[in-house]
Amino acid sequence: MKKTLLLIASILLCAFFAVADDEATALNCEVEVNSQKISNANKDIFNELKEKVTDYMNTTPWSNAIFSTNEKINCKLLLTLSSWDENTGLMKGDLQIQSQRPVFNSTYTTALINFRDTKVDFHFETGQQLVFNEMEMEDNLTAILNFWAYMILALDFDSFELNGGTPYYDMAAQVVRLAQSSGESGWKAFEDNANRSAVLSAFTETQTAPIRQMLYDYHRMGLDQMVITVDKGRSAITHTLENLGKIYSVAPLSVCLTMFKDAKLDELINVYSKANTTEKETVYEMLYQVYPSETNRLEQIKKTEN
Q: 10 Å Cβ neighbour count for 23?
């Protein structure tokens, strides 16, 4: 009887810690590794890389907040490798980062990030463990994963609470500071206007600060309200789109403008499909000012029927 009770207690304790550990993780991350450009290679290492990255993203406690299973942030990493040095373990390629957020009281999910990081290179070998370290840079692969995990969290929290993502931008900044001294590509300030340092700056510098107000107004005041009152929610989105012009006037090359377009332009076409002609014209003009090269797509806003 005593052994039975001890066994039951052990099972319950294991279950408790499993649930607690599950709630400590924030991401539900799907990972894909595309190695089609690398010929005559043993694909086992790429399968191992996928498994290790998947485990790392989904088990690392990125946040002190508690996430139930259905509250975890759905995201996806698609790593496309262009080269691999079998002798040194050096892999190069690009990383597509996508994340989504549910809209309240609906089955609809909206994109928060749809971005391609083009400066991805790291060393990975069979049997290598990915180790999380907040205080030091273990290697470039985990640094890249850490950065994007914190950015996914930052934008998600910003979309639910005004400036709610600040702690995660701070953590992303710590990753950038540590990585900038490593000499690895993709981290240096002013290296280009779309690397990881530039992405962080776009969401944290004063001149582009309206992007964070947009994240909140667009999602919390806009999409979340459209389920209750379509016109009221859409009006809030129209109002917050004015921030795009403010950012463009002071930082026309800011990567946050590109990130907003890639995540939201197709959605905006649908949002305004039932708007009146005046509202469609207003939105078209605001977006055309910032994205003149997207004329064909923007024209769809005006052409959709009321």
A: 16
Helix (H, G, I), strand (E, B) or coil at 100: strand
Using the CB atoms, write b or e for 171-194: b if 16+ within 10 Å: bbbbbbebbbeeebbbbbeeeeeb
pLDDT one-digit tens code per residue, 19-33: 444 455 899 999 999
User: With a threshold of 0.70, does the pTM exceed it?
Assistant: yes
Gap between the Cα atoms of 158 and 162, Å rounded: 6
pLDDT digits (tens, 9 = 90+) for 215-266: 999 999 999 999 899 999 999 999 999 999 999 999 999 999 999 999 999 9
Give the side-chain half-sphere CA count within 13 A for 210: 17
Collapsed DSSP state (helix, strand, coil) of residue 80: strand
What is the distance between the alpha carbons of residues 273 and 280, in angstroms, rounded to a whole number? Answer: 8
Q: How far apart are the first and last CA of the chain?
A: 72
Strand partners, 100: 111
The pLDDT tens digits for 172-219 are 999 999 999 898 999 999 888 999 999 999 999 999 999 999 999 999
Q: What is the torsion angle, in degrees rounded to the nearest 10, for the CA atoms of residue 177, residue 178, residue 181 and residue 184?
A: -100
Instruction: List Cβ<8 Å contacts ≥24 apart for 242-248.
Output: 242/286, 243/210, 243/211, 243/213, 243/214, 244/214, 244/286, 244/287, 244/289, 244/290, 245/286, 245/289, 245/290, 246/210, 247/207, 247/208, 247/210, 247/211, 248/289, 248/290
